[in-house]
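Dear support,

I submitted the protein below through the web form. The confirmation email said the job was done, but the results page showed an empty box. After a refresh the structure appeared. I'm attaching both so you can tell me whether what I see now is the final result or a partial one.
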Amino acid sequence: MRYLDVVTASADVAATSRRSAKVARLAALLAAVPPAELRCVVGMLVGEPRQGRIGVGWATLHGARVTPADVASVEVGEIDRVLDQLASTVGAGSQRAREELLVALMGRLVDEEQRHLVRFVTGEMRQGANDGVVTEAVAVAAGVAPAVLRRAVMLLGDLGVATERALTGASLDVGLTPLVAVQPMLAATSASAGEAVGATGPASVEWKLDGMRVQAHKAGDTVRLFSRGLNDVTAALPAVVAAVAALPVEQLVLDGESLGLDEDGRPRRFQDTMSGLDTTAAFFFDVLHADGCSLVDEPLVARKRVLVQVVPPRLVLPSVETDDPQVADAFAEQAVLAGQEGVVVKALDSTYQAGRRGATWRKVKPVHTLDLVVIAVERGHGRRTGWLSNLHLGARGPDGSFVMVGKTFKGLTDELLRWQTAELQARAIADEGITVHVRPELVVEIALDGVQVSRRYPGGVALRFARVRRYRPDKSPAEADTIERVQGLLR
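What the results page shows now:
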């Protein structure tokens, strides 16, 4: 299939707001894709290369833009092969080699193909065709029930693989198989544990650890561990591998969290956990398969009974079962006092909805806010081209200057982007490529999950999951939070 066919379909999908029209257009495209190219095309449609991370960022891709070709001639398979080469190009000289590969490819692409490739590889597709829309389109193209396909995607952990099976007539009755990663179930949010219990009814209120999500698989003597993104992290977590291997069960799939602990048994900071994965411990909160029996369709209360039978108490995440909001709030408070991130409230009758952010699981964690000053901003790219987007944030230093503590482009609506672009352009004092330095006059309220030690910024800390809540025209820069307060959020 020509790459231009995929690019044109993406443009058509972006041009309509009707879900039914998006699904119909994508279904028509998918029905014409050769079987060998299905996984690649699905990746192009959802903005996730089949190869995963390929070591190429927006700046490299933008630098590889050359004069477009006059005639479209590149096939999907050629794009896929170049991505394979990019992903496998490592070591000394790899940056130059990747640039040469990209320049050679870009020179053969017409303008719209070049722009699509940049968005595809950098995750900036924004065409209104998320995984759900593409999944529905696959079901239409294959003539299968959407629910059947969604379940196959869940258990295979890969929309591309499920698409390949559906459109080639292979069975979608795949079941949950140990050593094959499945998409993790995710949680919605609630303001408090009590509020969450009020919504879920009888629930398991569990510690929410500030660690690394781990899905553990065991089949005989083989143990494999997968991250939240379904990357194989077995080699990075030897202590967790040893703990799972020692469990007296032949086949097992567990869901849990890997966390580093200090000498007093308190959780280490997230960045310390990530930098010392080889010594982290695992705590499990769910079991999806045990000795030949899939448990994903069983209620949580039944899965928890199996969990405590196959996993020793020291490896099971602390929890309390209740329908009392006051009990839930008290347990959440104890979790935070113990150094944990918060709690997750899970309905006891909930099944394991892999890959879904359902209302039956709700996370509750304290949200910090800081009033910081915008000291610079980066020009946007992709759909934000023409706007000033990524904010450089400063906290107030002891001498009245502003100390950079992080960046964020999250939480910005189109309306807010337009406003801040005009306001920051009016305050511009220097221009360095993509970065525009501005007079430190605008105060912005930032929500964040915490801070971590960092050598990247002069303040010695970096904001975690920072996002814009609102600008504060009622506050002057002199009222912004101090660097001491930001540093005080270190746990």
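Response: this is the final, complete result; the empty box was a page-load delay. Residues 19-31 form the longest helix (13 residues).
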